[in-house]
Specification:
single chain; alpha+beta; BirA Bifunctional Protein, domain 2; Rubrerythrin, domain 2; Rossmann fold; 3 domains; seven-stranded mixed sheet; five-stranded mixed sheet; 15 helices; binds adenosine-5'-triphosphate
């Protein structure tokens, strides 16, 4: 068994060795806090996105989809509070890595600090009071030097003069702003009635100061967000419904309920009604996986104010007019992938004294559903196996054909990428037309007729 502290290292190395996740730009020495998904990684994240879309859009009658652009009007980020709110003096607790506002830390101990002070002045204040500072999250006392940092990533889009004092265009820092600014378009073009939701999956960018822990926190990442518009009266009821749905999502994909938990925010942002995160027990500890928040009418009110457009709703039944309240769920694809990878990862001692690494994915999440192998490359076994692989691909599941190396090594490789079933064509196949199906977890083998394999796979995937 791998000790917890080595588990992360082993997982990162497996992800690279087996084509799940590569560090960005590696042949150029790497590019911090950005990662590329390899052939199996892209299968995994595409599956997670598909599962999310099915649960949040396709199986519901009250949610519609959206794909808004990464570039948006710069005013949007003023309205959202990101332009002002993200340029704070930030410091980080060296123990729990909580990012904290240095001015708030100082205020806690009664030292006046203005957030507009320069870095050097705030650092002096921190240094002078360092014996009294405490991390509000973990209680520890060591902090990194302050950096004034705006998390928004700037671009030079449309800036042909190179004059950087002009209003910069940002790469979006979250996908939900694209949803808020399309609220009116959706209302006008679709037959939706409050309560309804808008869902979106897309890239977001943040100049994260503390980017580490693999794909848990990256500077370019993908978000899956659903913003649900409700009447003020129904907000909390819908919030509880959303929380229940998001919890169930993880259970349906085989998550051990003991490895996720709800964490309620104690300090709410001023507009929020209630905020819970779903935390996952990553190898480096319990950390936020997904946020489920009740946001009140803040978002639409802000955009109405900054755009000058009315963003309210006339209830057709009660004739009541109001600005809809929003409950949201928001999760990063990479963070979710890392949770399911950690969940699936195990190193096991086998009966024969050997050990194996295995990703015990729920079959729905496994990048490859079935691997087809001839016992030997000769005597016509390859041809039989290749034909079987071609037939299996018609099921639309991802299939791999592998004829290289000993059968044991090929099984190990499939275990490491989490393939639930391996089919082997052997000499008996030539005699009686049967093949063996080897199951990843129990490692049991059963014989079935070659022509029944596609139906067998379909049945087991359902
Ligand atoms: P954290 O406190 O970890 O920085 P956050 O509270 O800033 O996260 P939100 O702004 O609420 O996160 O974003 C919603 C979700 O988006 C998070 O729960 C997480 O799953 C994902 N997410 C946010 N930032 C990142 C990132 N840098 N890399 C990967 N996923 C991210």
């Amino acid at each position: 068994m791998i000790p917890q502290e080595q588990k992360m290292e082993a997982l990162v190395s497996l992800c690279k060795r087996r084509g799940f996740i590569f560090p960005s730009s590696e042949i150029y020495g790497g590019f911090a806090a950005v990662y590329d998904y390899g052939p199996y990684g892209v299968e995994l994240i595409n599956t997670l996105k598909r599962e999310w879309w099915r649960a949040m859009v396709q199986r519901r009658s009250d949610v519609v989809g959206l794909d808004s652009a990464i570039f948006m009007h710069p005013k949007i980020w003023e309205a959202s509070g990101h332009v002002a709110g993200f340029s704070d003096p930030l410091t980080e607790c060296k123990t729990c890595h909580a990012r904290l506002r240095a001015d708030h830390l100082l205020e806690e101990i009664g030292v006046e600090a203005d957030e507009k002070m320069d870095e050097a002045s705030i650092n002096e204040l921190l240094e002078a009071s360092k014996d009294r500072l405490r991390c509000p999250k973990c209680g520890q006392r060591e902090f990194t030097p302050v950096k004034k940092f705006n998390l928004l990533v700037q671009s030079n889009l449309g800036n042909f003069t190179g004059d950087w004092t002009k209003e910069p265009v940002y790469l979006r820092g979250e996908t939900c702003q694209g949803i808020y600014v399309n609220y009116k378009n959706i209302l006008d073009s679709m037959r939706v009635k409050v309560p309804f939701g808008i869902a979106q999956i897309g890239k977001a960018f943040r100049n994260e100061i503390t980017a580490r822990q693999f794909v848990f926190r990256t500077r370019e990442f993908e978000q899956m967000e659903m913003q649900y518009f409700t009447s003020p009266a129904q907000e909390m009821e819908e919030y509880e419904r959303l929380r229940a749905a998001r919890w169930q999502f993880y259970l349906d994909l085989g998550m051990n309920p003991g490895h996720i938990r709800w964490h309620e925010h104690e300090r709410l942002v001023f507009y929020a009604k209630r905020a819970f995160d779903i935390e996952y027990e990553y190898p480096f500890g319990w950390k936020e996986l997904e946020g489920v928040h009740a946001r009140g009418d803040y978002d639409l009110t802000q955009h109405a104010k900054f755009s000058g457009q009315a963003l309210n709703y006339l209830d057709p039944y009660t004739q009541e007019r109001y600005v809809p309240h929003i409950v949201e769920s928001s999760v990063g694809v990479g963070r979710m992938a890392l949770a399911f990878l950690s969940e699936a990862f195990a190193e096991e001692e086998l009966a024969d004294g050997e050990s194996r690494m295995v990703l015990r994915f729920h079959p729905r999440l496994a990048p490859i559903k079935m691997a087809v192998m001839p016992l030997q490359k000769k005597d016509g076994l390859s041809e039989l196996a290749e034909t079987l692989a071609t037939n299996l691909r018609r099921t639309n599941f991802m299939i791999e054909y592998d004829e290289g190396g000993s059968i044991g090594k090929r099984y190990r490789r499939q275990d490491e990428i989490g393939t639930p079933w391996c089919v082997t064509v052997d000499y008996q196949t030539k005699e009686d037309g049967t093949v063996t199906i080897r199951e990843r977890d129990a490692m049991t083998q059963t014989r079935i007729a070659l022509q029944d394999v596609p139906a067998w796979l379909q049945e087991h995937m359902n």
